[in-house]
Structure formats: structure tokens, C-alpha cells
Write a structure and sequence with these properties.
Helix content is about 20%, strand content about 35%. It is an alpha+beta fold and about 70 residues long. Strands 1-2-3 form a three-stranded antiparallel beta sheet.
């Protein structure tokens, strides 16, 4: 790939080689609650978003085939 990600950069894509081609994602992690809120103290949500148009289109195609 001509545009290798910078490991010290803000975003490092996750690349998966699949039957649908090479898919690239970025992730974000959200942590809920505060240290004094025992019910939410350790709840974290990691979400993945398409990093390019090809991945977004492939994911739409895959999702359409699930229904």
C-alpha cells in the first residue's frame, strides 16, 4: 500500500483481508460513567467505522444480504 499508516498517527486503520476484498476500519472507544458510579464504572463500547468508500460499500452489500 502506497499510504502506509503512521503508527504514531491519530488513526491507524484495521485492515482485514476477506472474500469481499481488503476492508479497512477505524475504531473509537467510549467509556461510560465515572469512578464513583459503580454500575457504569467499567462499561466501554468499541465501535468500528469504514475507513474508506470501498469498505463502506462492501459492508452495505453484506448487510443487505443478511436480511
Amino acid at each position: 500500500d502506497a499510504h502506509e499508516p503512521d503508527p504514531a498517527g491519530v488513526v491507524v486503520p484495521l485492515r482485514l483481508v476477506t472474500e469481499a476484498g481488503t476492508l479497512a476500519f477505524i475504531s473509537t472507544t467510549t467509556i461510560f460513567g465515572t469512578p464513583v458510579d459503580i454500575t457504569l464504572q467499567e462499561l466501554a463500547l468499541e465501535t468500528f467505522f469504514p475507513a474508506d468508500d470501498l469498505t463502506a460499500e462492501r459492508m452495505r452489500q453484506i448487510a443487505a444480504n443478511l436480511t
